[in-house]
Amino acid sequence: MSDLTALDRIRGLLIPVLPEPISDPGYLDLLGEASPAGSPAQRLMRSGFLPRIYERFWRPALVGAVKGPLGPDTGQEEALVRAMLALGPADLVLDVACGPGNITRALARDIDDGLVVGIDASATMLARAVRDTAPGHIGYVRGDAVNLPFRPASFDAVSCMAALYLFDRPFEALAGMARVLRPGGRIALMTTRRLPLAGPVNDLVGAVSGIRMFGDREVTDALTRLGFSGVRQKVYGLMQFVSGRLA
Ligand SMILES: C[S@@+](CC[C@H](N)C(=O)[O-])C[C@H]1O[C@@H](n2cnc3c(N)ncnc32)[C@H](O)[C@@H]1O
């Protein structure tokens, strides 16, 4: 079960909400019966089945294929994200669209008296996250990544891995991530990129699955516009890793 102390600390970071979030499932539930609108890909994330196979089979196979043969494996990817975020032991970290908490737990290895908060809309993913997370300095929230429920300038670092392409309003979500970061805060993203010279294929993927393929400068330019400096991008196959620091 997620540590109640971590949930209590998270309550202090939330924009006041009514009704009070319930914590019975082991995470703070801000959505109740409501769920953000869902594409086929998002509905899959809410199924009871996917969280059971996600971390061991689904993610390595699918994300691995999209990253291509030269892309980092899961361990290298986690190391890359931790390096991009340059975490300190007392940092407050937000993992947006945390799924079953795989990246959340990887980030928590750098944290001592800080806190890592995972937020996701899927109750089934979060149930798995709570099940697989030892009590300590990690806690989970069920909420909408496009409308983050945290007070401005709450976090030292924000990650959003393998999820921006699922959001119906990804640039609004990025603006929200910038809003909850403190000045000097770091961001690390992993998302899709468009198959070069294959516009119609990219559009078809989007239409059928709800997965958005981002142009090579779309995400980096968005971060620059939001006030990030030192924006960097690494490209592997049809995935891009993007990082930056809020001025
Ligand atoms: C592919 S998983 C990524 C999990 C993890 N971040 C990783 O890197 O493996 C995508 C997650 O995004 C979540 N998600 C999609 N749209 C969301 C939204 N609007 N708000 C919160 N979570 C969302 C899904 O529920 C799912 O758990």
UniProtKB/TrEMBL annotation:
Question: Matching SUPFAM superfamilies, A to Z?
Answer: S-adenosyl-L-methionine-dependent methyltransferases
Q: Which example biological process does GO assign this protein?
A: methylation
Q: Name one GO molecular function term.
A: S-adenosylmethionine-dependent methyltransferase activity
Q: Which UniProt keywords apply?
A: Methyltransferase, Transferase
**Top-level taxonomic group:** Bacteria
Q: Which Pfam families match?
A: Methyltransf_11
Key word Transferase present: yes
- UniProt keyword Methyltransferase, yes or no: yes
InterPro entries xref list: Methyltransf_11, SAM-dependent_MTases_sf
The Methyltransferase type domain covers 94-188
Name it: SAM-dependent methyltransferase
**Species name for this entry?**
Streptosporangium minutum
